[in-house]
Amino acid sequence: MSTDIPITGFIVHSEDGDLEHTHKLYITSWNGRPLHVHQFAGTTSYNVGHSHDYSATTAPALSSVPHTHEYFATTTFDAGHSHVIKGTTGPAIPIPGGGHIHRFEGITTVNGSTPHTHSYKGQTGNEIAYA
């Protein structure tokens, strides 16, 4: 016996495939529960004479369920290069007045004329309905 779970979302054509036509599926609700995202921003550590800023929005996750979010951002172009940050947030942390945030931290990709990384850490903003 199968159980149907209603989902809503949309499909976008993607050029990510090797030689095949591909699509990406973006789910906006799962079993009647809306998904949400978080905005995040910050500045990396100061290494090799500079730092980088970053800002982006996390990948969606279900609301009101123990969860984490994937995140990805490209830093600002400083000292002739940029870096990528990506990872998974920590679990949801409730905030007064409702909603929640997530903490995140990591090390950027290696780049620059003197190859190096930067560390970063911060917390997301409150949840935003994803639609």
Let me know the number of strands. Answer: 13
Terminal Cα separation, in Å? 32 Å
* Rg, Å, rounded: 18 Å
State the helical fraction.
under 10%
How would you characterize the overall build of this protein?
- The model has no long low-confidence stretch (mean pLDDT 86).
- By secondary structure, the protein is an all-beta fold.
- The chain has one domain (34-129).
- It is built from no helices and 13 strands.
- The two termini are 32 Å apart.
- Strands 1, 2, 3, 6 and 13 form a five-stranded antiparallel β-sheet that branches.
Could you provide a short overview of the structure?
This protein has no helices and 13 strands. It is mainly beta.
